[in-house]
Amino acid sequence: MGADAPNHFDNVPQRLPRVRFGQVHVHNNHYETPDASAFRHALGVGVQSQIFAENDFFRLGRAVDPADLLYDWGGTALTARGNVLRVGGRVVPVDLVAVHNAANDPGLGADAGWTPVLHTAIEPARAVDRPVSRHAGVGEIR
User: Fold this and answer.
1) Contact 89, 125 (CB under 8 A)
2) Distances (CA, A) of 51 to 87, 98, 115, 121, 142
3) Rounded distance between C-alpha atoms, residue 47 and residue 65, angstroms
4) Counting beta carbons within 10 angstroms of the beta carbon of residue 57, is it exposed (0 to 12), middle (13 to 18) or buried (19 or more)?
5) CATH hierarchy code of domain 8-135
6) Residue 106: is the preceding peptide bond cis (ω within 30°)?
7) Is the N-terminal amide bond of 66 cis, ω within 30° of 0?
8) What is the pLDDT of residue 59?
9) How deeply is 82 buried, as exposed, middle or buried, from its count of CB atoms within 10 A (0-12, 13-18, 19+)?
10) pLDDT at position 20 over 70
11) Given this model, what pLDDT does residue 1 score?
12) pLDDT for the residue numbered 138
């Protein structure tokens, strides 16, 4: 998956990442959140943040609300494209901003104002879960 290898966030409750004052390209990560009791949010959209979330794979337990994947920490926008969501057995495309905005008022804008150019190949989101889980973690530096 390249030098800017993806992450596997397994049952981590929040800040994956939380961003303030910067441009962050979040791509090809595998998020697994089976339990709603401890989960707070995946991506924290903070003050003057410019998050570009691309081709991430979100696997949620049935009790986890997809609207909680984003949390507004005073930010205004996030660009999201190519992300997928698995709840149960189905993998479906997910518009992170639209799902967040349907449950929150005021909502977030859908354009963070930049497009990342410095990265290696970005894999399709549906292809992320197995290789990331297999190659992420301690001792797995590539």
Assistant:
1) no
2) 24, 15, 10, 18, 25
3) 24
4) buried
5) 2.160.20.10
6) yes
7) no
8) 96
9) middle
10) yes
11) 34
12) 55
**What pLDDT does residue 63 have?**
95
Beta strands in 39-99 (DSSP E): 43-46, 49-54, 57-60, 70-73, 78-81, 84-87, 90-93
Nearest to 80 by CA among 102, 99, 53, 43: 53
Can you give the pLDDT at residue 135?
61
Other Cβ atoms closer than 10 A to 3: 7
Contact assessment for residue 54 and residue 80, using Cβ atoms and an 8 Å cutoff: yes
Q: Which residue has the tokens 């003050």?
A: 47
Task: Give pLDDT, residue 137.
Answer: 57
- Dump pLDDT digits (tens) for 77-136: 999 999 999 998 899 999 999 999 999 999 999 999 999 998 888 999 988 877 676 666
Residue showing tokens 């005073």? 74
* Known catalytic residue at 15: yes
Domain residue ranges of the chain, discontinuous segments joined by +: 8-135
Q: Which two tokens stand for residue 47?
A: 């003050």
> Cβ of 141: how many Cβ atoms within 10 Å?
7
Phi, psi (deg, nearest 5) at residue 141: -70, 135
8 A C-beta contact, residue 30 and residue 12: no
